[in-house]
Amino acid sequence: MTANEVKKPGSAAEIIRKIEECKRHLQKGNLFSSIVQFRDVLDVYISESNFQATDKSRLTAAINNFQRQLVISQFFNDIYGKVYFRDNDFSTSYDFLCQLIKIKEDEVADVLVSEEVSQKLNLDELNKDDQKTVKLMISLVERGESSALHEMVGGHDNLGSLILSYYNESGIDSRKSGNIEKAIIDYKKAITVSPNDENLYYNLARAYIDSGQKKNAEASITQALQINPDFKEGMKLFKHIKNHEN
To answer: Which of 106, 115, 145, 158 is geometrically suited to a Cys-Cys bond with 140, CB 3.0 to 4.6 A?
Structure first.
């Protein structure tokens, strides 16, 4: 490769490569990594004013396309809420992502220093290394970094079970107290820890029923039955939902 072929950080080819990385992060479920990288893409694009017309058109299309992928990503909406981007309004998108990232980091920090969370997780009963691992797992859940989370849980089953119980029990407590919206969020976070647990989808379906979201409830309990077709409580809830469709 000659000196003229080296890709500059702000070159069109390098930006396209980074957008592809954003897509891969999104596909793997590493949401925080995806939006942080996308924010950096927007920063470079906005700062660079010397793109050729063909490159600018190609980059604009690629950025708009990725924004649309974020908007329709259910996992992204579950973790970060429903968002909208306007085509070609990249300065607004950049400012919004900066704010979103800061809010999420503040939320993660609040969870990690919460005395209530520490008590529920019984952190004092763990050694220092396990405490650090649990906190890292929590931060991955809160950021929506599911791929990295699953790798870590795979190597620390006992701590993964602790995190799973924390989010599931938080969902149960929230539902009992009438905070259905938070219960739904907590159950979804529990599912990111253990995506093949039919009981979590059952709990999520019940919360959806409480909030009047029957289609989502049916989708959740259907997922539970796909994981375990012999799940008797799931069958009962599915029949209940179908019998009260109208």
So the answer is: 145
The 3-class SS string of 29-97 reads CEHHHHHHHHHHHHHHHHHCCCCCHHHHHHHHHHHHHHHHHHHHCHHHHHHHCCCCCCCCCHHHHHHHH
Measure Cα distances from 112 to 99, 118, 132, 173 in Å. Answer: 20, 8, 10, 19
Tokens of 107: 């939320």
The answer for residues whose C-beta is within 8 angstroms of residue 66's C-beta and 6 or more apart is: 19, 22, 23, 38
User: Which residues, in sequence order, are CB contacts of 3 under 8 Å at separation 6+?
Assistant: none
Where are the alpha helices (H) located in 144-197, listed in sequence order? 146-155, 157-176, 180-193
Average pLDDT (117-136) is 90
pLDDT band at 10 (very low <50, low <70, confident <90, very high): low
Closest by CA position to 238, among listed 200, 193, 205: 205
Helix (H) or strand (E) run with residue 220 in it: helix 214-227
Question: How far is the C-alpha of 246 from the C-alpha of 222, rounded, in Å?
Answer: 18
Q: How far is CA 217 from the centre of its chain?
A: 20
Contact of 172 with 55, CB cutoff 8 Å: no
Buried b (16+ CB within 10 A) or exposed e, 94-125: bebbeebbeebeeebeebeeeeebbeebebee
Q: For residues 169 and 120, what is the distance between their CA atoms, to the nearest angstrom?
A: 9
For residue 6, pLDDT beyond 80: no
User: What is the rounded distance in angstroms from the CA atom of residue 162 to the CA atom of residue 111?
Assistant: 15
